[in-house]
Design goal:
elongated, mainly alpha, about 170 residues, Rr_diiron-bd_dom, single chain, Ferritin-like_SF, Ferritin-like, metal ion binding, Ferritin
Length: about 170
């Protein structure tokens, strides 16, 4: 792949991470419950970490034409989700709140990130680029699974609260 295209992918990935971080910070600031604030802050922190990594790789690629080796061999993103935090978040987010809307929007961000990173991992020729994008894809899948789980709990609560379940 040519240098310009690789740099554009890195720029787009960085922008996507920044947008996700901004969304999570706004949701954190609007949240009233501490467990919900903590959840959104955790997601924002992860996105900042990803931005830092992408910036490092952008600089490396600009200067050397290669991705820096960088510890992306582990599957850190596949660590089990924080069940206690997720349970508290599920219980403390109102399905009609801004936080619930942010979760829905974040699902779209995370789906796009998973798709972009998985495609780049498959198409990358540079082994370090391949590792980086696979690692990022796994992290974003973890976020996506957490968010979908929380959203599904909203649906269940709405159905139960409104007696929509079949008799």
């Amino acid at each position: 792949m040519n240098k310009s295209n690789t740099l554009n992918i890195l720029k787009n990935a960085f922008l996507m991470e920044r947008q996700g971080k901004n969304l999570y910070e706004i949701a954190r600031d609007k949240a009233e419950d501490e467990s919900v604030k903590t959840f959104f802050q955790s997601l924002a922190d992860d996105e900042q970490d990803h931005m830092d990594i992408l910036e490092k790789q952008f600089k490396s690629y600009m200067s050397s034409g290669k991705f820096a080796a960088g510890g992306y061999d582990n599957d850190g993103g596949t660590e089990p989700a924080q069940d206690i935090l997720s349970t508290a978040v599920k219980a403390n987010i109102n399905a009609a709140s801004f936080e619930a809307t942010a979760i829905t929007a974040a699902i779209g961000f995370e789906q796009n990130a998973v798709k972009l990173y998985a495609l780049r991992s498959e198409g990358a020729e540079d082994p370090e680029e391949k590792k980086l994008y696979k690692w990022l894809s796994l992290w974003e899948k973890t976020h996506l699974q957490q968010l979908i789980s929380i959203q599904e709990s909203f649906m269940d609560r709405i159905w139960e609260d409104n007696s929509f379940w079949p008799m």
